[in-house]
């Protein structure tokens, strides 16, 4: 078993049950997620989900890391990041049988998303029925304008390019 803690710095720390720090995770998607406000995993702890104060959901794949945490090759890979709400995410969980993620925000909305792609299915209280089998429709909630960003597996947090370095570049 491991414990996970989410922090205002957007960092997730994974701890052994003895209290030893095993891993620190920082999101490296294009959009800054802000302070983390909610965490959950699937039943087998292969997927870690985090919700943020800015309304983002970040999904990490943890399966290879948990098989052998001491092996440096087994990394936790950030797989997906998307804006789920315009305001703070206060709760989220994954419903594995239907392969959906349910998110709730301080704006009072509760929304459904495809667990692997981040595609929007709808919100609780809508007039139409949820169509969970159709993930080809690229729709978004009215208050969100960005589609999910799939994170390439070869990406690494250290490779993030700084747009405004603190050094003079005479060629620019």
Give the key terms.
single chain; 172 residues; mainly beta; Methylamine Dehydrogenase, Chain H; 5-stranded antiparallel β-sheet; 4-stranded antiparallel β-sheet; 1 helix; globular
Can you offer a commentary on this structure?
This protein has 172 residues and is mainly beta. Helices cover 3% and strands 37% of the residues. It contains one helix and twelve strands. The strands form three sheets. A five-stranded antiparallel beta sheet has the order 4-5-6-7-12, with no helix packed on it. The protein has a four-stranded antiparallel beta sheet with strand order 8-9-10-11, with no helix packed on it. Strand 2 (12-16) and strand 3 form a beta hairpin. Residues 154-165 have low confidence and may be disordered. It holds the Pfam family Beta-prop_IP5PC_F. This is WDR64 protein. WD repeats lie at residues 82-113. Keywords: Repeat, WD repeat.
Task: Give the gist of this structure.
Pfam families: Beta-prop_IP5PC_F. By secondary structure, the protein is mostly beta strands.
Individual helix count: 1
Integer-rounded radius of gyration: 17 Å
* Second-tier CATH architecture of the domain at 33-150: 7 Propeller
The helix/strand class is: mainly beta
Supply the CATH class of the domain at 33-150. Mainly Beta
Low-confidence stretches: 154-165
Distance between the termini: 50 Å
Largest sheet: 5 strands, antiparallel
Fold-level CATH name of the domain at 33-150: Methylamine Dehydrogenase, Chain H
- Summarize the helix and strand pattern as letters: EEEEEEHEEEEEE
Taken from the alpha-carbon principal axes, the silhouette is: globular
Count of strand segments: 12
Assigned CATH superfamily of the domain at 33-150: YVTN repeat-like/Quinoprotein amine dehydrogenase
Q: Please give the order of strands in the largest beta sheet.
A: 4-5-6-7-12
Mean pLDDT over all positions: 79
Summarize the amount of helix as a percent range: under 10%
Question: Could you tell me the strand content as a percent range?
Answer: 35-45%
Protein name: WDR64 protein
InterPro entries: Beta-prop_IP5PC_F, WD-EF-hand_domain, WD40/YVTN_repeat-like_dom_sf, WD40_repeat_dom_sf, WD40_rpt
Pfam families: Beta-prop_IP5PC_F
Domain IP5PC-F beta-propeller: 27-114
């Amino acid at each position: 078993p491991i414990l996970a803690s989410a922090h205002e710095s957007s960092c997730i720390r994974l701890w052994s049950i003895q209290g030893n720090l095993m891993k620190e995770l920082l999101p490296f998607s294009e959009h800054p997620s802000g302070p983390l406000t909610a965490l959950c995993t699937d039943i087998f702890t292969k997927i870690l989900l985090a919700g943020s104060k800015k309304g983002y959901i970040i999904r990490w794949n943890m399966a290879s890391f948990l098989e052998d945490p001491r092996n440096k090759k087994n990394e936790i890979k950030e797989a997906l990041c998307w804006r789920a709400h315009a305001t703070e995410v206060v709760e989220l969980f994954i419903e594995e049988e239907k392969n959906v993620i349910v998110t709730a925000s301080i704006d009072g909305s509760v929304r459904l998303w495809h667990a692997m792609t981040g595609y929007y299915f709808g919100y609780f209280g809508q007039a139409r029925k949820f169509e969970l089998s159709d993930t080809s429709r690229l729709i978004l909630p009215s208050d969100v304008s960005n589609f999910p960003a799939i994170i390439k597996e070869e990406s690494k947090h250290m490779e993030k390019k700084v747009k405004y370095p603190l050094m003079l570049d005479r060629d620019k």
